[in-house]
Structures are given as structure tokens and as C-alpha cells.
Amino acid sequence: MARKQFRIGVMFSTTGPYSVVARSMLNGALLALSEINQTQDGVTLEPVVVNPSGDLAKYREFSLDLLKSGIRQVIGCYTSSSRKEVIPCFEKFDGLLWYPSHYEGFESSDNVIYTGAAPNQHVLPLVDYLASRVGKRAFCVGSNYIWAWENNRIFREALTARGGTVVAERYLSVGDIEFDQVISAILDQRPDFVFNNLIGTSAYAFLRDFRAACRSRGIDQAARIPVASCTLSEPELQEIGAEAVDGHLSSSVYFSSLNTVENAAFMRTYTSAFPGGPVASADAEASYIAVKLLGATLAQAGSDESRLVRGAVANQRLRAPQGEVRIDPQTYHAWLTPRIGRSSLHGQFELLLEARQPIEPDPYLVQSSPRFATAMRPPLLRMVKS
Q1: CATH number of the domain enclosing 41
Q2: Residues 6+ away with beta carbon under 8 Å from 65
Q3: Residues 210 and 194: beta-carbon distance below 8 Å
Q4: Is the pTM of this model over 0.90?
Q5: What domain range is 189 assigned to?
Q6: Using an 8 Å Cβ cutoff, are 111 and 87 in contact?
Q7: Rounded distance, CA 253 to CA 353, Å?
Q8: Which residue of 95, 114, 165, 202 could cross-link 198, Cys pair, CB 3.0 to 4.6 Å?
């Protein structure tokens, strides 16, 4: 039987302030494309790859170029600001954006398929872990855009419901690497932990500078004031450097160190395909998942028309590297498996806790509102390592 060929867009900022993560996302997408074109019956996917370089205007420009060229399915975007910038384009031309990154939730569009974590799959599990095992006084830092604003809002509400408090919040421009005043404020407040929503080069510089400032004062930063986030991933650990790489907490649905048959196969093929890196990350896996689900959906639908793709995507089930993944037909978000990890000197994450099974996405926190005490909910995660 002849294969149907579909052109799809692939849009990641492989240069710019968050290029390390974006390059791993591109790798994940290209790996899935290669596997589909080699093995999957029915379809061949031809990628059209564009690089907006972190420029919001270019995200919009390239989205319009792709959609006007007849492409209806695009895998892409890392930041929430870039996603917000392009959604009107996809709604106008009735294309589908497959968004493969964790995000702050409180959004639903018929023109977006979300394969990254929603807030109940990464923020709330992290609050539960920190409040029960680390402390209840938080200092929040973040890059000055919607991801950090909203993530900190959700975090504050959830921590307050657990009897905790946010002692301060600070925001810096994306790419800013001057942290003297922020670090001085943290050390003056002496919180139990820092909740970090900085991205890219800003995050790497902060972690290095904060570790150095604590060391100069005789403070064991990882033990006394750990830094926790929902973004830190393996390729970024390499960017931080050996002097500050260990002891950071990350809430994610995937770590490359997971001991599953599917992840072992994924890591073998990923490492072989991209020996120069960046190494695999949660966002790389989410991009891989997006393309695999898209390929299976196109094969079933027999068309890349958005209405038919939306109707068929909820029928798909994928044994992903992280475990079973499927798309919720009400929200077009993915069922995913939350986990908590701690970074090591080896540039990996050791798994501390994980959910027993995939968790239903709740992007608007309707079922899991942080406004209610989390003690009223059963624990999301089981302990793997103390």
C-alpha cells in the first residue's frame, strides 16, 4: 500500500537564550520522524524546520509562512510567550500546534495539542514534596514573562494551602545574568528553599552564582537552601558546570535515568542519533511523543485536516519512554506520570518520588485546585528514594 506523505512544521529556537533545551526538543522530534518514516505503515512525514531564535516576531512570521504554505500540523515552541504569540495564527488558519513543553496551564484551544505537563502534573506534586520534606518558607525567582508569573501564582496558592508562605518574589528579563541583589535578598530572608522559574542562560548563571555566594558564607546550599524548579533538565545540568550541578530538585514527567524498557531503547537510539548532544530531556521526550502521536493519528485519519486529526488523536495510546501516554479528548492535554528528581554530580537526576500511574491533566485545576488544602487529596507520588 502506498504511503501518504504529509509535510509538517518543526519550529524550535535552536539559537538564542534557551537554545540548549530547544536543540534537545528538535532532536526528539527528528528521532520520532525518522522512526515513523522507517517503520510506520501508511504515512511518511516530511519536516520543514524553522528557527525563530527566541524572537517572538519570528515565531509569528514563521507560523504564518508554514500555514500559508499548506502545512496544517506544526510541532513547536518552548516558552509560553512564544506559544501565546502563535496561537491566533493557528486559530485563523485552522492548523494544529503540537506544544511539547511543560507549562502553566489555564489555557485551552481547539488548535493546540499539549504533550507537556499541566500544572497538576508538575507544580502541585512539587509543592507536596517541598512542604512535607523540605520546609514551608519559599523565595520565588523567575524570568519576567507569563510562565514565571503564573507558575509562581499557582505555587503560592498551593503552598499557602499547606500552611506555607512565599517570603518574596523577584523577576528578571529573559537572558539576564546579574543576580547580586536577588541573591543578597535570598540570603537575608533565609527561606527553606528557592522556587526557580528562570529559564535558559539566566537559570544557569543563577545556580552558579547562588552556590558560590552560599559557599563563601559557609552555607551548604544544596542542604540548607535547595533550589527547586519545574524546568531543570539534563542538558542544562551540563551548562551549569561541575561546581554547582548537584543537589537541585526538579519536578518532571521524565528523566533520562528512568529504568524502563522503553526508555532504555529511547536512550540508545537518541544517543546514537545525536552523539554531539544535547542529551535527552523531558522536553525532548515530549517532542518525541508529539511526533509519534501525530504520525499514528495521521495514519488513522488519512488526512492532515485539523478536524479529522482532533477527532482521531484521542484514540491513540503510546508506550513512551516515561510510560503510557494518551491525549484527553476534553482538553487535548496528555495523561502523564509526575516525578521528582534530584540532580547529581554525574549530570543526571536520581529519582526520589513518582506517581504509580499516569495522571489525568487538569489544566484549569478544576479537580485539584490549590485553593483547597492539599491534605484533602491523596498523595500523588510514592517514595522511590529518601
Answers
A1: 3.40.50.2300
A2: 50
A3: yes
A4: yes
A5: 120-256+338-383
A6: yes
A7: 11
A8: 202
